[in-house]
Structures are given as C-alpha cells and as structure tokens.
Amino acid sequence: MEVKENFGSVKKFQLSAGLVVVCCFVIAFIVFEFVFGNSSNFIGNDVNNHPDNLLGTIYKGGPVVVVLQALFLSVIILSVERWFAIKKAQGSGSLVKFVQNIKSILQTGNIREAQQVCAEQKGSVANVVNSTLIKYEEMHNDKELNKEQKILSIQKELEEATALEMPALQQNLNFLATMTTLGTLLGLLGTVIGMIRAFAALANAGAPDSIALSTGISEALINTAFGIATGAFAVIFYSYFTGKIDDISYSIDEVGFTIVQTYSATHK
Known about the structure:
The protein is mainly α. The chain contains 10 helices and no strands.
C-alpha cells in the first residue's frame, strides 16, 4: 500500500495549462501597456510618433503581440514545469545505470536488494519496478495459482503501475504540441494585419502617411518574429520532452520484461 501512495509523485510539479495561460495574458498585457507602451520609448514622448527604441517598435506590433507574448511565456513556463516533472520521474541517479543494476541483481535472484535499489533511486521507473517486484514476491509465495497465472499477474501489475505514472509525465505536452502550429499561425495573422495597414497607408492620395506605413510594417515584422519564436520553442521543447518520456517508457519495458523472464526461468 505504501508503494501505491508513491505513484504519481511528479504531480506536485504539475501546473494547469489554462491557469498558466490566463496569468501569462495578464502579465503580457501589463508589460505591453506599461513597458513597451511607455511614452519614453517614442520620439517626442508621444506614442503616436515613431518608436525611439526596440521596446517602442514592439508596441507598434499591435494587440496581436499581447496574445503572442502570452503564449510564448506560457510555453517557457510549462516547459520549465515539465523539465522538473520529468527530472523527478527519472529519479535521483542515472536511469541507464539503474536499469543495468536492477537487471544484474535480478540475475542473482536477490529481490530484496533490487527493492532497496528502487528505494534509493525513487522516481516513476523505480516506483513501477518496486511495485512489480512486490507482486513478484507475492507470486513466489503463492501456492494456489499456476505458473501461467502468476506470470499474468506480474504483467498486469506492471501495466497498472505504468498506467498510474505515465499520464503525469504527459501532462501539458498537448499544449506544447498545439503551440508548435498555433504560435506560427497567430504570427502570420499579425503579419497579414500589419501588411494590410502598410498598404492602406500607401494607397492614400498624395504623399503616403509615413507613420501609418512604419506602424504597419512594424506590426507585420514584430508579429512574425514572436510567432516564429513561439512555434520554434514549442517544437524544441515538445521534441525534447517526448524523447525523455520515451526513454522512461523504454526503461520500464526493459526492466519489466526482465522481471517476467526471470520469474519464468526460475519458477516451475
């Protein structure tokens, strides 16, 4: 029972993606209005004039910048959260070395030592392995079930323990996957809006409105930059975390297979 209570230990690191996005929208709006929109960032301290620095140029990117900033900040925060969660799931030591140690110990048949290694390693893989080893001992002492039934029971415990751990690792990854496309599309939307304004300024009779023209171009380029940055970071982090989760899953499968094969080979 104590082992079951350890399952899902990475949940303490989980943040709600929806709550994070809302908070990031508030932060992005405040930064947009009071930092980027500060009058000191514009010529003559007038926000209607040309920007005097990069902050003012970002402000000229328009309201879509607020959305893109919020999503970009959300990607960063949730990526940091996932990093801590997966680090916790891997345990206190090298996951590769832990798997090798467990496999070596199982060859000697010392289940107690293997459980001690799990207690020292901690994390999702160790929790799953420890739970499976406990079932291994139960089946070893069971006199009623036949060998096939015992093996099935060990496999079932392995699957149930894995099912308790994996959802916590995959939390918020769907958000990162969505941002890989949505960030780029919103950046493109801001680009189109900016170009519409730029061409509208050029279409005026007589001399073009230089301020309106520069504002439209700024809006287009700034939104493009934020959109690409959001999509790029989301792709990088999503690929990294899914790779780490695959490593954890492979480690669980490898040790689980070894436990089942060890029982099959040492019991009649």
